[in-house]
Every structure is written in C-alpha cells, then in structure tokens.
Automatic annotation (TrEMBL):
The lineage of its organism: Bacteria, Bacillati, Actinomycetota, Actinomycetes, Kitasatosporales. Keywords: Membrane, Transmembrane, Transmembrane helix. This is Uncharacterized protein. Signal peptide: none annotated. It comes from the Bacteria.
Length: 343
C-alpha cells in the first residue's frame, strides 16, 4: 500500500468514525427538505400517486409533510438531547413510514436502467427521497452502537438452511428467465409470439438498448434476474464480504456493509410484498373469485400462466433476499476485538 493510499484510508476512517455525530444533523436536514417537498406538492396540486392516467390526488403531499415534520422534530431532539430511548422508538416509527412511502422504487429504477421514463416523476422523486430518509433515520437510531472498540468479523458463510433459501430464490427465477428468453429468441409462449411481445415493448416506450438486446435474443429483465441472483449469493457466501483480486487496489479489502445491503434492502422491500400480494391476487383469480385482466394476452389462462411464473419468482426471491439480508446484517456486525472470529 502506497503512502497516498494509507493517507486516504486514514482520512476516510477518521471521517467514518465520526458518523454518529453528523448523521443526526444529516437526518434533520433531510427531514426539513422532505417536508418542503411535500408542502410544495400539496400546495401545487402535484399528484404523488400514479393511477395509470393524469388524474390523481395531492393528498399524499400532506402525508409527506406529516412524515417530514415528525422526522424534523425527532431528529432535532436527538441533536439537542442525544439519543434517548423514546427518541429511538420514534426514529424507527418514522423510518418505517418512510420505507412504506419508498415502496416500488425498485420498479422505477429498473425502468430507468432500461432507458424507459418513469410513469410519474414527482412520485419517483418522492420514493427516492423517502428511501434516503429511511437509511438516515435507521443510521441515527443506531448511531450510539458505533464505538472505537469494535472490529470487523472474519468473512463467514450463512448457515446451511439459509443457503437453501438462496437456492430457492435462484431456482424461482429459472422459469421466468426461460420464458423471457423464449420471447427474446422469437419463440411462442402462453399464446404470444416473440414478435408480438417486441411490439408490446415498442408500444410501451422501450429504449433502443432494450430493443437491441431483444433483437440479439437477450432479454434485459432476464439479465437483471442474473444480477439479482448474484446479489443474493453474495449475501450468504464469504466472498461477498471481500473484494476479489480483479479489483486491483481494492483486492482483499473488506466490502463496506452498505454496498450489498443498500440494493438488497431495496429489492427485498419491493419484491417480497409485491410478489406475495401478486400471488394472493392470482390465487383469487385462479379460484374464479376475481376477474383476471388479459392485458396483452389472448386468454385468461395465458395471463394466469405468465402471472404465476412472474409473481412466483418475485415472491420466492423477495423472501429469500429478505432472509439473506438479515443473515448478512448479523454476520457482518462489528464485534468487540475479544470476540472476533479467528477461525
């Protein structure tokens, strides 16, 4: 390690050790900005809910104001009086509210990655701000847990039973990826051809990158599923805690906990409830208790088949990712030097 690298590492470590001091201020700043954002949307009549059309309500703006105002009061009290037990509880309450508000942010991120515009920019901005706030609120609630007398644990694998959950999440995406690749290669599945599916993508405003990959027989959502599986396994295997050799200057160093946890938490918070609710709806539709929307399919049976494949994958993967996140969180917590695993 060169002298420059040692200096940068020392500066970063010194700044990071101070995070319990500045995180409450950062949270209070976020809360003030979030309150202002909600107030601006409420007064201007900007809708933060998307219903598939132009109509909407600005009522959610006032809910955002309430969450932001509560966050401002609580984080301000933490700055003034410290992290008292009642304040910690309130921080987690506001964190939960912000997390609920950020629901489906992952879907907006995916559409942007594929070059498509989001349905409602104000709604997407609200979700992004809420997600940032949830992270800051959680960090503030745990800021007194950080101490200089802690050390990193040795990289470890999740218990075998949790790795079985990772296998379940992986295998759940196999039918989904296969279905997508059949369409991308020009085949027919569930009564719809690859050409018809490509036309649907064009009609929905798919980007040139998306359409080009489809023309090559590569479905972008299937590629995202592969990345999701990689993320899942990085949470349950030791190699997910150390940078590999090909990262050059970073090789052999510990992966910051937030690096895999941030996308994993976002994915778990979105896909698990989305998939579980979707499976519940499909169960009702299969039983004939609700009407299944055809969408672009030719029959309700075809729509149900594709729905079960997609929602089943999201539900199983989302639950597996939630389990893996909890395991990674517990296994990578800083430990007292005397208790660090040296095996």
């Amino acid at each position: 390690m060169t002298s420059v690298e040692r200096t940068m590492k020392a500066l970063w470590s010194a700044w990071w050790q101070r995070w319990p001091r500045w995180v409450a201020w950062a949270t209070m700043l976020w809360a003030v900005l979030y309150t202002g954002f909600g107030l601006a949307c409420a007064l201007s009549g900007t809708s933060l809910l998307y219903h598939g059309g132009d109509s909407g309500t600005s009522g959610l703006g006032w809910a955002v104001v309430a969450v932001g105002a509560l966050g401002t009061l609580v984080s301000g009290a933490v700055v003034l009086f410290g992290l008292l037990p009642p304040l910690r509880v309130l921080l987690w309450v506001v964190c939960g509210l912000a997390g609920i508000t950020a629901f489906s942010l992952l879907m907006d991120v995916i559409t942007l990655m594929l070059g498509q515009g989001v349905d409602n920019w104000a709604s997407a901005a609200n979700k992004a701000l809420a997600a940032v706030g949830a992270v800051l609120l959680a960090a503030t609630a745990r800021s007194d847990r950080m101490s200089a007398g802690t050390a990193a644990r040795a990289p470890s694998a999740a218990p075998q039973r949790l790795q079985l959950a990772a296998w379940a999440g992986t295998l759940a995406f196999v039918p989904y990826a296969a279905m997508k690749l059949v369409w991308a290669s020009g085949g027919t599945f569930a009564g719809i051809t690859g050409e018809e599916m490509l036309a649907v993508s064009e009609r929905n405003g798919a980007s040139e990158i998306f359409l080009t990959l489809e023309s090559w027989g590569l479905d972008p959502t299937a590629l995202l599923a592969v990345l999701g599986v990689f993320l899942l396994w990085s949470l349950v295997r030791p190699w997910g805690q150390v940078f590999p050799r090909w990262t050059l200057l970073l090789r052999g160093r510990r992966v910051p906990r937030w690096l895999p946890l941030a996308p994993a938490l976002l994915g778990a918070a979105t896909l698990a409830p989305y998939g579980v609710v979707g499976v519940g709806y499909l169960a009702l539709a299969t039983a004939g208790l609700v009407t299944m929307r055809l969408g672009d399919f030719h029959s309700s049976g075809d729509a149900l088949l594709v729905g079960w494949i997609g929602m089943g994958a999201f539900a199983v993967y989302g639950i597996a990712l939630t389990i893996a996140v909890r395991s990674y969180w517990l296994r990578t917590r800083p430990a007292c030097p005397m208790s660090v695993n040296t095996e």
